[in-house]
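Supplementary Methods, section 5.1.

A reviewer requested that the exact input to the structure prediction be made available. We therefore reproduce it here, unchanged from the version used in the analyses.
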Amino acid sequence: MLKATLRFSFPQLLLVAFVLIGALLGAAALRALFSLDTIMAQSRESTTQAIALSTAAQSLSERSLTMERAARQALVLGDRQLRQRFEEAAGHARDILRRLESNELPPEFSRQWQQQLSDVEALLDGSPETALDRERAVARAFRELDGHSAAIAQQVQAIIGNRNDALQDRVEKSRRQLTQQVLGSIALAAVMALGFGVWLARPFQRLEKAIVGLGENRLDLPIDIPGPPDVRRVSQQLEWLRLRLTELDADKARFLRHVSHELKTPLASLHEGVAVLGDGVAGPLSPSQTEVVSILQHNTQLLQHQIEALLRFNAAAFEARQLKREPTDLLALVEDQIEAQRLRWQAHQLSVRAEGPAMVLPVDREKMASAIGNLLSNAIRFSPHGGQIRLVLQDDAGRACLDVIDQGPGVAEADRDRVFEPFYRGERQPTDAVRGTGIGLSIVHEYIGAHGGRVQLLTARHGAHFRIELPHAS
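The structure derived from this sequence is encoded token-by-token as follows.
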């Protein structure tokens, strides 16, 4: 199923997700519509039946009046046509009772009413001499029949009320079921949307991670991101880019090694030749020749330092990608670097101290020591005699921060954006110190970046303020 799904492109998968969620919500809406139609139909049917029952009960009372009038007139006048009218009305009344019985009227109500009607019919038969007596008896019988009709009407109202209650219960039950279905559909749609979002976003998170890895020069891990075909194509292009960058990096390192090697041999010969001239082996030198030899010696030494710095930076850039992490106490590491450079800062009569709590992080001990040592060496080089250098370690929002603060001339505003570039030297240089190579801060930048952290130059009123930030988990 997963392999079949991965044949679709990301837009197609996104469309499928929208269709599924829309279908789910649409099904819930249709279910609600059908439930509403069913409830409305039941309500209309119940209303129709209630009207019919009420009409039947009222009609039964009206038939009783018609029968009473026809029966009493038939007894008094002895009219056969009036008797026939009574019998027709009685037949209609019995039909009404049968309809009421079919609509849940208890049989005993119908039985009592018909029994009373039978008593009336029995009183209609007899001799003319007893007609007046029988007429008074018929009147009393119809009063009792009216009582039965009233009881039937009351029972019909009770039936209508029960049916309304039952309909109300069904409506309430349907409402609860519908509410549960709608809420369940919304919750399921939300879960599906979240699931699809996480599932579809995962390849892009991996792509982002791979791009960040390329940006941080982590070229040793192959890039192979599973996902839809369009994501796979981007993954393959990133893998091609990784291989190409690896080749270019290797070519750069090889070029630097070759150039450095090719330069070191003639440079060594040049240095020895100048030394021979300076020692007077080829004969005594005039003052002007001695000055030229001195310039040559200085420049050959400077060129040698530049080549060695180039090799060191190239080695540092290569080693930055090969970390050997181990739990390391950063505060102890800072104190070790302060102790290692004690002679230098004591010679400048500087005060150097470490502050902050002990903090253990998984880092490459040697490379982190080199980064801290370079920052400390830089601070010692630029600090005035009798100045103070502080190395402050603190935990800031889940990141370990090391601040290196000195009281030197600071970094010129024009140099701030380029201070971590290799071989770049700012305009503010100490007058009594050897000219630097410009790779110390570049090595710090390489090593800290390899740990997933960053080093930055912060704004300070006096001196320079460098900060190293490292994540707690790398």
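The longest helix spans residues 131-215. These observations are discussed further in the main text.
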